[in-house]
Specification:
alpha+beta; two-stranded antiparallel ribbon; 2 strands; 97 residues
């Protein structure tokens, strides 16, 4: 991230224009970066999303067996959970080995 500091005037043909100097921000402390390497957080999130997918599939099957139509919110919930799991489990193109 970059932070903007001092402002210096710059002259142009039509008058003056303000420019800003951009300085890089210092690195984040280790406490803020702790979640980046914590595998248990990702396992917990994947497990919860997996339970949401399974619950929506079982709910849709149960409603179909009962002769009722599946609500759109149930389909949307299952689809969103599958998409979130795919996003979490797909390899990052920046960190290929």
């Amino acid at each position: 991230m970059m932070s903007v500091s001092n402002s210096y005037p710059m002259t142009t043909k039509g008058g003056t224009m303000n420019t800003q100097i951009i300085k890089p921000r210092p690195a984040q402390p280790a406490e803020q970066r702790a979640l980046e390497g914590d595998v248990w957080i990702y396992r917990l999130v994947v497990a919860v999303l997996g339970v949401a997918v399974i619950a929506s599939v079982i709910g849709a099957i149960m409603l179909a067996l009962a002769g009722q139509s599946t609500p759109e919110v149930l389909v949307a919930l299952g689809s969103a959970a599958v998409g979130a799991m795919a996003g979490l489990l797909a390899p990052s193109p920046l960190h290929r080995r």
